[in-house]
């Protein structure tokens, strides 16, 4: 070919994404990513592309039992779980469990709750004191 165009976008849907934290626990500053390509003829091209970095903190997904008859099973997925000190499970605003071990799974009895919709919240507490929350709804059958 006479021309080859490659577009690399660093946005949330882009190819360049960094979700791990550097050693000082802060996400890198957004900026341009510069790289150089050498073709088969020996010609070199330097290209600059924008790159964005997601934060190191956050709960990405909560897997849970949709309709719990006896036990509510909950598992949380995190952007980076290396810095998490503990994860707390709240049902209707009341703390019911705490986990300090990876993979931060919970299996709680729901027999004391009346049937109906309940609010579930996970609160992740990081070693540097940052707190991240995420909530969802489940049903007691």
Provide a concise account of the structure shown.
Helices cover 0% and strands 51% of the residues.
Main beta sheet strand tally, sense and closure:
5 strands, mixed
Query: Which class of secondary structure composition applies to the elements?
Result: mainly beta
Gyration radius (Cα, Å) is 22 Å
Unreliable parts: none
Helix content: under 10%
How is the largest sheet built, in terms of strand order?
4-10-9-6-7
Terminal residue distance: 63 Å
Q: Give the topology string: H per helix, E per strand.
A: EEEEEEEEEE
Which geometry do the CA atoms define? Answer: elongated
Oligomer: single chain
Protein model, in words:
- Helices cover 0% and strands 51% of the residues.
- It has no helices and ten strands.
- The chain has a five-stranded mixed beta sheet with strand order 4-10-9-6-7, with no helix packed on it. A three-stranded antiparallel beta sheet has the order 3-5-8, with no helix packed on it. Strands 1-2 form a two-stranded antiparallel sheet.
